Amino acid sequence: MEKIIIAAIADNGVIGRDNDLPWDLPEDRRLFRDLTLGQAVIMGRRTFESLNGKPLPQRHNIVVSRTLAPQADIHICPDFDSALTIAQTLAEKVFFIGGEQIYRRALAVADLMILSHVHGSFTGDTFFPEFDANQWRLVSEKDYPGFQQQVLRRQFRQ
């Protein structure tokens, strides 16, 4: 199974503010939807709450939380490892969609990163974790209005 980090990151590393995105990029949302449809998505509780507490349609939603009550159409897991185990039984690809702690853990296991680099610096309270760029090889990049999307593949395993 392919394990993929997908994130939108401002020039200053911001990925969120007040449990929401500090920008509005419809093209990036469309790309996110098209890539993740039919696949498993792993997210933290706060990311799930930012979706108004509703699962993303046509995806296997897995939420890492020790406090969230069971809900229909959502797999709730107490930790990252159990979320990854469940994801492997549900789909060919698993996407790590946030937030900061999920990305931090996913960096150790991901095969691919799809990063939308949002042009500009934004005020925020959530940041994408630093990573060793030497472990990743740029596969492709494409410019869109307001952002550039890069696809990076892991070069080697630790």
Any descriptors?
158 residues; alpha/beta; Dihydrofolate Reductase, subunit A; eight-stranded mixed β-sheet; 10 strands; 35% strand; globular
Give your account of this protein's structure:
- The radius of gyration is 15 Å and the shape is globular.
- The chain has 4 helices and 10 strands.
- 22% of the residues lie in helices and 35% in strands.
- The two termini are 18 Å apart.
- It has helices at residues 26-36, 45-50, 80-90, 100-106, and strands at residues 2-10, 14-16, 40-44, 60-64, 74-77, 93-96, 112-118, 126-127, 136-144, 147-154.
- The chain has a single domain (2-154), classed as Dihydrofolate Reductase, subunit A (3-Layer(aba) Sandwich).
- It is of the alpha/beta class and 158 residues long.
- The longest helix is centred in the first third of the chain and has 11 residues, at 26-36.
- The strands form 2 sheets. It has an 8-stranded mixed β-sheet, with helices on both faces. Strands 2-8 form a two-stranded antiparallel sheet.
- Pfam families: DHFR_1.
- Pathway: Cofactor biosynthesis; tetrahydrofolate biosynthesis; 5,6,7,8-tetrahydrofolate from 7,8-dihydrofolate: step 1/1.
- It catalyses: (6S)-5,6,7,8-tetrahydrofolate + NADP(+) = 7,8-dihydrofolate + NADPH + H(+).
